[in-house]
Amino acid sequence: MTLQQRIGKWVLSWPPLVYMVLFFLVPTLIMVVAAFRYPGDYGGLAPMYSVEDGKVVWDLTLENFQRLTEDALYFDLFIKSAGYALATTLACILMAYPLAWLIARSPKRYRDLMLLLVILPFWSNFLIRIYAWMIILGPQSAFTRAVNWLVTGLGFEPIQLLFTPFAVIVGMVYVHLPFMVLPLYANLEKHDMALLDAAQDLGANAWQRFWRVTWPLSLPGVFAGSALVFIPALGMFAIPDILGGTDSIMIGNLIKQQILDTRDWPFGSVLSIMLTGGVLLIAALGAAVARGGRKRG
Amino acid sequence: MKKVLLSLALVASAQAFAADELHLYNWNNYLSDATAKRFEAYCKCKLVQDYYGDNEEMLAKLAAGAKGYDIVVPTGFAVEALVKQGKAQPLDKKQLTALGNIDPGYMNGFFDKGNVYSVPYSFTTTLLGYNETQLKKAGVLDKANSWALIFDPAVLGKIKGKVTVLDSQRELMSAALMYLGKPANTTNPADWNAARDVILKAKPYWAAFNNQSYIKELTVGNIYVAFGYSNDMFQAQQDAKKAKRPFTLNFSLQKEGNTLSLDNFVVLKDAPRKDLAYKFINFMLDGKNAADLTNEMGSGNPNKAAKPFVKPEIAKVAAIFPGASDVGRLQQLRDLTAKDRRELNKVWSQVKLK
């Protein structure tokens, strides 16, 4: 690479670089420092040091981290949140895959319209859509009554849909589904149909053609979609707040509670660092798996 | 030079304009439009309102150096915070001619002994709102005057899944503490743990922690009991009546005691128009003007002189005009120290996560 090319690269890449440093790295570092400080009286943080007799006394602590290990509750909540995010991701894969396949195999002139329909829900506000689910899942809705008609018809007790973990997962799947459809579509659309014909000629049945040809080729799309769904789902707090019951809170709710309700920014920072760390770990694992997959392929 | 002159002229005209403006930094929806218009006509000035959704937001904005506000409307503990930060202006009582209209029961709050800085304006109580018709059917209507309605598993068994409670650690813990006969402001960890255990036993019977939608859930009949704020319950009751629902909603104080959030007028030390601020507070102390908010929103009213102007069906509601025997059982929450807040927070985490 010539010097000119190298300079050109830098000139082109500094705006996003500065943006990332300013709005990701700096806040993350502030959070890391906050995790070692004491909370302030009216929110915010206590001063980091005080000057006594001309000497600087540092007011830093490990207490915020110790609190994590004091009680198994916090660890359990991380596991539970990961469970919610995983269930959401799997449901999204199951629902998005056939849809993405259908769009990718439709005549070209309909594809843009169908993609538009997938992203159409984004045109209305996220909270409004979640509140709409409150009505759909509420005890007096036609949907809930139909479900309960069926359930009682089979001889079971009527069930409640709203304010349950089920409602939380329904809401999360609904919100994140497009993030799974789009990368899957981008991948499936590029598949060479001749491969399937060849597999059929060689005697593969429909299932074998899917499992041994289409699925392995679509894995990069599946991984990309899973990352786009799993990561935001893990930190979600609005949906459990609105649709969840007394036992369906997630790690995001606990963080929000530390920052807004109990004015304990340091502990909120500790939890956020754990969440960010967990996400990075999962992303690294996913990347490693994807790389391994590509090598085999 | 021309530019300088022009900008000077602009500044001067802005000053002249500001001469007739009172800046009120108030809660959302906490002053009747009719009252505001009447005040503007009375003082021949403009009333400019800016809004906040909770005390922390207001404190944070003022702490960050927001200027130009004349009056703020903080809840008790936030008055204390403003005083401690040196932001509150000691009031000249000689100018507050109608201060005697305030019920002495609401004067001398823990946050401002002798009301040096604050004048009580309005309050909410935290209590139970309920569907009278459904509770009668379930046979637990007689429990509505007690916290047992949301804490006693024997009672809850009959209304399982039909109860929501506030997602607020101070309010819910206080209710459980009062159910146990302990003071709402206790900082004794043993009391907190006892309250936690009460909540954990009751939690499986509740539908949700709900701050956002309990008004609607009560109004449409999905929920039979909600633990929330008195003005919200009033709104739910009015909405259900308007929609001609086949049931009646009601709300009442609990015999073990309730928390009371008293909001007060505080003049800021750097208020540009203290004269208008006094004019406004005096205007609001007048019974007729003080009655508007109660008539519209069912907010609690500490003004004795307002009672004759309040609709009779509202005036007789104890949660809005607590009688002498009720006032003694109402407790105002104090702010906790950072250390106590953290201890309570740990207990609350167990409540939420277990």
From TrEMBL, chain A:
Lineage, highest ranks first: Bacteria, Pseudomonadati, Pseudomonadota, Betaproteobacteria, Neisseriales
Please provide, in alphabetical order, the Gene Ontology terms of the cellular component aspect for this entry.
plasma membrane
Native species: Gulbenkiania indica
Q: Where in the cell is it found?
A: Cell membrane
Q: Does the keyword Transmembrane helix apply?
A: yes
Keyword Methyltransferase part of the UniProt annotation: no
Where, by residue number, does the polypeptide cross the bilayer? 12-38, 82-103, 115-139, 159-186, 217-239, 270-290
Q: How does it sit in the membrane?
A: Multi-pass membrane protein
Q: Which UniProt keywords apply?
A: Cell membrane, Membrane, Transmembrane, Transmembrane helix, Transport
Q: Which family does it belong to?
A: Belongs to the binding-protein-dependent transport system permease family. CysTW subfamily.
One GO biological process term: transmembrane transport
- Note the InterPro entries from the entry: MetI-like, MetI-like_sf
Where does it mainly reside? Answer: membrane
Domain ABC transmembrane type-1, chain residue ranges per copy:
78-286
Q: What is this protein called?
A: ABC-type spermidine/putrescine transport system, permease component I
UniProtKB/TrEMBL annotation, chain B:
Q: Which InterPro entries match?
A: SBP (IPR006059), Sperm_putr-bd (IPR001188)
User: Which residues are the signal sequence here?
Assistant: 1-18
List the GO molecular function terms: polyamine binding
Family annotation (Gene3D superfamilies) = Periplasmic binding protein-like II
Q: Where in the cell is it found?
A: Periplasm
Which keywords belong to this entry?
A: Periplasm, Signal, Transport
Q: Name one GO cellular component term.
A: periplasmic space
Coiled coil start-end = none
Which GO terms fall under biological process for this protein?
A: polyamine transport
Protein task = Required for the activity of the bacterial periplasmic transport system of putrescine.
Q: Which family, according to UniProt?
A: Belongs to the bacterial solute-binding protein PotD/PotF family.
| UniProt protein name | Putrescine-binding periplasmic protein
Name the species this protein comes from.
Gulbenkiania indica
Upper taxonomic lineage:
Bacteria, Pseudomonadati, Pseudomonadota, Betaproteobacteria, Neisseriales
